[in-house]
Amino acid sequence: MSQQSWAWSAQTPHSHSSFTPETHPTKGLEGNSCRNPDNDVNGPWCYTTDSNKKWDYCQIPDCAGLSCGTPAIKPRRCFGRIVGGCVSKAHSWPWQISLRTSTGIHFCGGTLIDPQWVLTAAHCLERSTRPSAYKVLLGIHTERATESSKQERGLEKMVLGPNGADIALLKLDRPVLLSDKVQPACLPEKDHIVPSGTECYVTGWGETQGTGGEGILKETGFPVIENRVCNRPAYLNGRVKDHEMCAGNIEGGTDSCQVRTTPKYKCEIDARAVFFFFNLFTAVQNT
User: Fold this and answer.
1) Which residue segment(s) compose the domain that 117 sits in?
2) Where is the Kringle domain (predicted)?
3) Which of 23, 89, 147, 270 has a C-alpha 20 to 30 A away from that of 231?
4) Mean pLDDT score of the chain, rounded to an integer?
5) Is 202 exposed, middle or buried (0-12, 13-18, 19+ CB in 10 A)?
C-alpha cells in the first residue's frame, strides 16, 4: 500500500459510516492505524488518502521476537511460598490473564496459549455455563486494570476438560493484539516429562494475607521434585499420580508443613516459559 492510511473518523476524501470509532468502539479505530474491524480473512485494512481508492489492505510484516514463552521483560523469578511470594515486574508474565465476571470482578486467572484461546481451571466456570457471564482482561499488572496496555475480550465459547478434569479452554470473541505486554505461553510436547529441579512458577492476584502487594500481580516458584521421591511414605505416601507433578521444598526449611494442589504451573524449558496444566502438588516439610 503506497498511499497513506487515513483516520477512521475522517470523512474526506471518502465519506463513510460503516466503520468508525462510534460504530465499532472496541475495535481500536481511534487513530489511523490498520485494523480489521470486520474480521476480513485477508487481514488488516484502512481507509486511504487517495481520492481514487477508498480503502486498501495493509502490508504488515509478522511481529519479530514475539514467539511464545519469551517475555520482553525478564521475570524476577522469586522462589518461596505462594502467600509470601514477590510482586512481579510489570508485564514480565505477558500470558497472564484475569478472568472476570461480566461486571468486571476478578475471580480467577488463566494463561493465553494462542491469540484467541485461554487455558484455565474448570472450577473457575462453576458460577455460570453462559460465555456471556465472563470476560477476559490481558496486558495488565494491577487488579484495578488501569493500564493503557489493557485488552478486554468476551468469550465466544467454553470447552471443559474430559472426564471431569479440572481444565477448560476459553475461546475469545476475537483474537488479541500481540505485543511485548500480551503474548502466549508455550505448550509442552506430548508426554513431556518435566525434569527434577526445573524451576516452575505460579502467578496471580490471589490472597496475600498481609504480606504486601495487594492488587498487584505476584509470583512464587518451586523446584520440581520427582514423583517417586514425593511418593515416599515420609512425604506424600503415594498420593501423586502419573499425570500429576510435584514441586516444593522437602529438604526442610522455615515454612510450616503443607500440601497444596494447583492446576497450572509455568516452567522454564530451553529458556522458554512452557505452561503445564496438572493437578500439581507442592509439599513443604517443616524442620
Assistant:
1) 94-172
2) 1-63
3) 270
4) 80
5) buried
